[in-house]
Design a protein that fits this description.
elongated, about 260 residues, mainly beta, about 50% strand
């Protein structure tokens, strides 16, 4: 019993220490605008705040050469420069398989603390684009990344019988949008609806603004489904909420929670 109590007290101390650390290192107000996903046609930047600073992960591919590079930086927010500045950096190049599904990584070109005058700097320009000034080989020269929000995977609200799947299509500059599938009603029910939409993130409103069509699935006498497109065009708006939820707005607001293993049928 004493061992159990001692273990419980140790766990409680760790939890309290983690909570105290989170309070000791709140996210800088000026740095919050960086925390998002940013994209160009063949690349993505993912910025996440992690207690004491920011983790910036970048993937840039050259599809014509079936190759690319993966970068990761640990950064802090500099209020005077209104920028994220790196303290450590890494770069690994890779080759893309013929089917485009796998990457084979080479040994890191560099990986560790930045030396003097090697810091990488991230800023946001007057047009709201992320600018990447790499301190090692100026890999971000000429690149401007668009804020696309952070909408990926499958999200659900079981009580409302609503699920939504978000897929980013940024393969080239002509497909810089999300495809969104929204199912209302459960698969296997007598009737349910599936909306197929395209969406663009609007940084000014903080919402993914999508529109598209609806297919209605109706079970027939043999137990199969008949489908019918109703010919209407529908709008939907999605925004991130505190607590890791998404607000789905279309007539009424429905909160969706992320489903790690989910798939829209």
């Amino acid at each position: 019993m004493k061992k159990a109590i001692g273990f419980l007290l140790a766990v409680m101390m760790i939890v309290c220490a983690c909570a105290a650390m989170a309070e000791a290192y709140p996210q800088p107000e000026g740095g919050k605008k960086f925390e998002s996903d940013w994209a160009i046609g063949s690349g993505m930047v993912n910025i996440i705040y992690e207690e004491e600073g920011y983790r910036v992960a970048i993937d840039v591919a050259d599809l014509a050469k079936a190759s690319g590079s993966s970068y990761e930086y640990s950064c802090f927010y500099n209020e005077e420069k209104d920028a994220l500045i790196s303290v450590s950096s890494s770069r690994r190049d890779y080759k893309i398989s013929d089917d485009g599904l796998d990457k084979t990584f080479a040994e890191p070109q560099y990986d560790g603390p930045d030396e003097e005058n090697q810091e990488t700097v991230f800023t946001i320009d007057e047009n709201g684009c992320l600018i990447w000034k790499d301190g090692h080989d100026d890999a971000g020269a000429g690149l401007k990344f668009t804020n696309i929000g952070r909408f990926t995977g499958v999200w659900r609200n079981e009580a409302e019988e609503v699920e939504a799947q978000f897929m980013w299509n940024g393969i080239d500059p002509d497909t810089m949008f999300y495809t969104v599938y929204i199912q209302r009603g459960k698969t296997g029910a007598d009737t349910y609806s599936l909306f197929t939409m395209n969406g663009i993130y609007n940084p000014a409103t903080g919402k993914l603004e999508a529109d598209g069509t609806c297919t209605v699935f109706t079970k027939n006498a043999s137990g199969d489904y008949d489908t019918q497109d109703d010919g209407e065009n529908y709008d939907a708006f999605f925004s991130m909420l505190d607590g890791g939820k998404i607000l789905y707005e279309t007539g009424n607001g429905i909160e969706l929670e992320y489903d790690l293993l989910g798939n829209v049928n």
